[in-house]
Amino acid sequence: VNTPVRRWVGSADPSRRCGVCQHGAKGRRGLASQRVRMDTEGSGSSALEEVMETLRKNQDDAVAAMKEAQNLAALQELRVKYLGKKGSVTSVLKSIGKLPKADRPKLGGLVNQVKDEIQALFDKRKVEIEDEEIERMMVDEHFDVTLPGVGRKKGSVHPIRATIQKAVDCFVELGYELVDGPELSPEIETDYFCFEALNCPEDHPARDMQDTLYITDDQKYLLRSQTSAVQARYMKEFGPPFAIVCPGRVYRRDDIDATHSFQFHQIEIMALGKDLTLEHLRGTVIHFLKRMFGDEIKVRFRASFFPFTEPSMEVDVFFNEKWLEVLGCGMVDPFVIEKAGYDPEEWQGFAAGFGVERFSMVINEIRDIREFTNNNQEFLEQFNFHTLDGA
Ligand code: DAH
């Protein structure tokens, strides 16, 4: 393009003065809504006129569109459309080559000015839209601060676990040692520890009551039917004197109904020493039952039979207007002490055993033993055993 070389002097020099709207070259800020006045009279070429017309149109369009924008995304899109790298205002600069050299600095200044105006409008509109958004949220999304919050549900301890914990705590407080785990209290037990060592030989009718789940053909191994097996194991391993409390799972071949299950829990206690008497047994059992049922509970001892105790007793509590059997106990039979390798003239003591499900059913008034293993959340939630000592 044949453009004559011209020098710019004085106030018309666009590097120092805008030359159009008479603002300083730096820090020009007009109201975005106010169209930039581009007075080029006498100083610009017709090509400049043309480019300036495009700019003016761009500015008008941008102002109109931004005023209409209803959200930040739309507004941002407009900013990119006009001011982005490929935006229409920016691209006006591309036509700079068409202008006489003397007009070029002027165009640069003008483009900057228009950009500033559009940017200012963008900033202003952005704040407005954000305010509108907050305003809208306050109207639409108001909520009732008096409504109850969304609580997080806390798990709770299973009633069986809670009963075991409470009973074990009682004995541990009395100085008993907790015996637990597969070495001294295995669920797969030998016939010897489960029966033989407890004065219950193979043909003894007491075995029938524990109709048993043998797991080998030679009937040497079985799922233990009573935690009493731990008595025999512990005694043989460590010898007297001792006092132990042994909670654990036991198994019996039983038809399932509201009060029977093929699998349940027992807790066994045993104390062996040099001068333990029936009165120690009575005191211990009464203390324990008061802990479980409350101080007012009435307790009754009845003569009974177990192969490993002599004398043997069954214990009832008077609960909800009825006598309920809850526990078996007795003085350790001399045979059992001798079988473990100790002198029954020197050592004697007592033992007791009870079913955990039975205790929990009586205390919590649960009518069906199957509830314990049904995984029915509504059932479990009734018992608020949140802490291990909360039974
Ligand atoms: N093991 C007995 C049962 O399962 C309960 C029992 C009775 C345990 C008397 C004892 C005891 O330690 O002395 O029926």
Automatic annotation (TrEMBL):
It is an enzyme of class 6 (ligase). Transmembrane segments: none annotated. One of its GO terms (cellular component) is cytoplasm. Its cofactor is Mg(2+). The keyword NAD does not apply. Its main location: cytoplasm. One of its GO terms (biological process) is phenylalanyl-tRNA aminoacylation. Keywords: Aminoacyl-tRNA synthetase, ATP-binding, Cytoplasm, Ligase, Magnesium, Metal-binding, Nucleotide-binding, Protein biosynthesis. It catalyses: tRNA(Phe) + L-phenylalanine + ATP = L-phenylalanyl-tRNA(Phe) + AMP + diphosphate + H(+). It is found in: Cytoplasm. Residues 171-381 form the Aminoacyl-transfer RNA synthetases class-II family profile domain. The keyword Metal-binding applies. One of its GO terms (molecular function) is phenylalanine-tRNA ligase activity. Coiled coil: none annotated. InterPro entries: aa-tRNA-synth_II (IPR006195), aa-tRNA-synth_II/BPL/LPL (IPR045864), Phe-tRNA-synth_IIc_asu (IPR004529), Phe-tRNA_ligase_II_N (IPR004188), Phe_tRNA_ligase_alpha1_bac (IPR022911), Phenylalanyl-tRNA_Synthase (IPR002319), tRNA-bd_arm (IPR010978). Its EC number is 6.1.1.20. Pfam families: Phe_tRNA-synt_N (PF02912), tRNA-synt_2d (PF01409). Belongs to the class-II aminoacyl-tRNA synthetase family. Phe-tRNA synthetase alpha subunit type 1 subfamily. Tetramer of two alpha and two beta subunits. HAMAP family: Phe_tRNA_synth_alpha1. This is Phenylalanine--tRNA ligase alpha subunit. It comes from Erythrolobus madagascarensis.
